[in-house]
Amino acid sequence: MSFSPSTPAALPPEGEPGRVFIGDVTTEAGAVIPDVTVEFERWGRLNDDCSNVILLEHALTGDAHASGPSDEYHPTAGWWNGMIGSARALDTDEYCIICTNVIGGCRGTTGPSSPHPDDGKPWGSRFPAISVRDTVTVEHLALQELGISRLQAVIGGSLGGARALEWSLMHPDFVGKALVMCVGARASAWQIGIQSAQIQFIESDPDWHGGDYYDRGVTPTRGLGFARRVAHLTYRGELEMDDRFGAAAQPGENPLGAMRTEDRFQVESYLDHQAKKLAQRFDAGSYVVLTDTLNRHNIGRDRGGLNEALHSSTVPTMIAGVDTDILYPFHQQEHLARNLGNCMGLEKIESAVGHDGFLTEFERVDSIVRNFLARDVS
Amino acid sequence: MSFSPSTPAALPPEGEPGRVFIGDVTTEAGAVIPDVTVEFERWGRLNDDCSNVILLEHALTGDAHASGPSDEYHPTAGWWNGMIGSARALDTDEYCIICTNVIGGCRGTTGPSSPHPDDGKPWGSRFPAISVRDTVTVEHLALQELGISRLQAVIGGSLGGARALEWSLMHPDFVGKALVMCVGARASAWQIGIQSAQIQFIESDPDWHGGDYYDRGVTPTRGLGFARRVAHLTYRGELEMDDRFGAAAQPGENPLGAMRTEDRFQVESYLDHQAKKLAQRFDAGSYVVLTDTLNRHNIGRDRGGLNEALHSSTVPTMIAGVDTDILYPFHQQEHLARNLGNCMGLEKIESAVGHDGFLTEFERVDSIVRNFLARDVS
C-alpha cells in the first residue's frame, strides 16, 4: 500500500505495510540517492495533533514488521511480538507506534536491491554507503511527510539503538525521550574487525559480482552464510549456547570419527540453519551496506569527540544492556550512561542470551519499556 | 637434526630442533598413522636419572620453538621468550625443558603436509582426525623414546592447556604436577561454532582441493586468512584492541567515503596483516586438523562425564585464566578449579588482552609459573 506526499498523516491499517516517498536524500558523505521510498508499519491510532507517536528502530536484519505473525508478505513474525498492543508495554490504546524499514535495507525502503530510477535495474554497486545519521535523516523526512513533527519517544536496540541515539543528538527538539539498548557510542575496533570480516566473506563470494549479482540469477549465499554464522555467534551468549547444544553431535552424524568428514556437532547444524534462513529472507547487498553502517557508527564524529557529544545531549535517555553481550559489552552502556547529558538511568538485563537479550528477555524488557514510558521527564 | 630410536636420551643442543621416531600410532578414533616423527626442542641439561624434565605444550599455531630468536629455520621467535633460561621462571640451571611440536602440526612433527610413508607425497586428506588425547599419546611415546619416564611438570595454555589437562588424566603417574591455562574441561558450543566456521572457510576455498592442494602449486590462503582474522578476534580482548585502534582509519585510506571501497579502518589492516603472516608460516591442512582437535577436546568422554573425570584427577594441578578471555571465559577455569580432584589453586590474570594474555602478560605469568614450580606437592 502506498501513500503519496500529498496525503500527510494517511496511515495504513494496523500492522500493514505503508510507504512514503521522500524524494532525494543526500548522505552524510555527500552521495545523492534520488526518489527514496520508506516502508513502515504502524500500530495504534494517530491522535489528532499527531503527538502520540513512538518510533521503533529495528536492528541489522530486522524490518518494519515489529509485531504480527509471519505471512506471505512478512518472512518473519514481528521482531518485538508481545510488546505492542492494547495494554501492552507499547500500549496501542495510548500510542501510535511506527516502525520504519531502514534505508539500505531490503524490506520496502530503498536499498541496493531496489530499482534505480534511471534504468529500473537494481542499484547494486551504485548504492552509496549509509551512515547511522543517514538512516535518521531518512526517517526524519518520512515522519514529516506523514505530518508528524514530534515523537513521544524513540526506542531501539543494536543498530536500532545506534539510530535512536543519533536521533537524540541530531533532532533533540523532535524527540521526547529515547531508550537506547545494546549499543555503544561508536563502533569499537573489535566490532569493526568482526563486521569487516563478514563484509569480506560476502564480497569474496564469486557470486557477489562486485555487488551486481541481481540480474545474473545467482546470489552470494555462501558468503552471506559465512557472515551469518559468525554474526550469530556474536549475538548469542556462550552460556546459553552451551546450555542448548554443549558438545553434542547432530543426531545421525558423528563428528568424532577417525577421519574428518562433514558430520557435525549440533551447534554446527544450528548455525547452518541460521545461515540458510537468513539467505532466504535477506539480501546480501543490504547486509553489506548495513554492516558498513554499523562500522560507521560514531556519535563523536564532527561533534568534538564521544564524550563532548554525549555531554551535549539534552534528550532524556534511558540506556539498557545485557551483562553477557560480547558484541556491545555492558561497559559500553555504562560509558553512555556515565557521560550522557540527560541520562534517565541504566538498566542491566541479566541474561545468558547475550546481545540478543533485548529481543528474547521478554519480561525484563517489557518492564524496562513500561518504566521508561511511565517516567515523567517534562 | 635427527635421532634414531637406538639412542635414547640423546638430546639436541639447546634450542635446536631434535627429532624422535616413535613408529606407528593408533588414534583414539581408530586410525593408524605409521612412522610418526616428533620434533622437539630442549633447554637445560637432562640430569642423569632423567628426572628434571618439564614438558611445555604449545597452542594451536605454535611449535617446539618456545624460546629463542627467529631465524632461517624458525619463522617466529620463541612463543614464551623470556620465560626459559638461567634463573628464569623455567630455570635451565635446574630443569630440562622440552617442547614438542604437536602431531597434526607443520613444524617437524608428522602432519598433513608431511610425506606419507607409502608414496612420499603429502598426507593431505589421508591424514586422520586427531584428538587432544592423541596428541598426548604421541608425546608420551616420544618422551619414553628419549628415556624419560617421569615429568616434573607439564605446562600449557589454550590447546596446550587442553593437552596438559589430558596428560594429567591419561598418565597421572608420569606427571608431577600440571599448570593448565586458558582452557576449559571441554570445547563449548560457542567454541565449536566459531572453530567450525574457520574450518569451513578453509575447506570452501577453491584452492583447498579437498585437502590435497600440496602438489598443485596453490594454497588456500584466502580461506586460511578468513579463519585467522576471526580467530584473532577471539584471541584478543576488545578493550585492548579498541585501545590500540579505536575507529581510526588506516593512514592514507578513507573508510568513511560516499561509496564503499576497499579503504580500511586501522583494525582491518591489522587483521589483514595477521592473516598474511599466518599464511606465510602455517599450513592450512594443519590448521584444519588442529582446529578440529580443539573441537574434540572433552575430558569427560568415556570417563563418566566432565565432573567425574575432574574429580578423579590425582595430579596436583594449578589453573590460570584471563578475566577478559572470550574464547575460554574465566568461568571455565573456575569450573576446572572447583571440580578438580587435586587443585593447587586458581590464578586470575587481570588483563585487557584477552585469551592471549598467557603469552603476553609476562610479569604476571612469570610469577604464576615460579609459584607453581616452587610449591611442594609431594
Description of the molecule:
Chains A, B: Keywords: Acyltransferase, Amino-acid biosynthesis, Cytoplasm, Methionine biosynthesis, Transferase. Chains A, B: Its EC number is 2.3.1.31. Chains A, B: Substrate binds at residues 228, 356. Chains A, B: GO terms for molecular function: homoserine O-acetyltransferase activity. Chains A, B: Belongs to the AB hydrolase superfamily. MetX family. The structure is a homodimer of 378-residue chains. Chain A has 378 residues and is an alpha/beta fold. Helix content of chain A is 33%, strand content 15%. The first copy, chain A, has eleven helices and ten strands. Chain A has helices spanning 132-145, 159-170, 189-203, 221-235, 238-245, 266-281, 284-296, 306-311, 330-339, 357-360, 362-374, and strands at residues 18-26, 32-43, 53-57, 84-85, 90-91, 96-100, 153-157, 178-181, 317-322, 343-349. An eight-stranded mixed beta sheet of chain A has the order 1-2-6-3-7-8-9-10, sandwiched between helices. In chain A, helix 2 links the parallel strand 7 and strand 8 (178-181). In chain A, helix 1 crosses helix 2, helix 3 (189-203) runs antiparallel to helix 7 and helix 4 (221-235) crosses helix 6. The longest helix of chain A has 16 residues, at 266-281. Chain A is globular. Residues 1-9 of chain A have low confidence and may be disordered. The interface between A and B is large, with 58 and 58 residues.
